[in-house]
Design brief:
The chain has 70 residues and is an all-alpha fold. 64% of the residues lie in helices and 0% in strands. Helix 1 packs across helix 4. The longest helix is centred in the N-terminal third of the chain and has 18 residues. It is globular. It starts with a helix and ends in a 12-residue tail after the last helix.
Amino acid sequence: PGQIIRRTRIAYAKHLLTHTRMMVRDIAQRAGYENERHFGEVFAAEENCSPTEYRRKHVAGVNHQPPSDP
């Protein structure tokens, strides 16, 4: 169960990273992480890069509108 929750949170964070201009700390909170550093560690373990690096690699001319909460 914990792994499913973590993967769901990271998937939501990836969506926010690529479809909004929200700050990483705000994305961490929206994805259910109270601590931005812990979020970064979990994200890096899942994606092999930081949230900022992920955004840089995957954003190119996207519509920067925040999605509604899951």
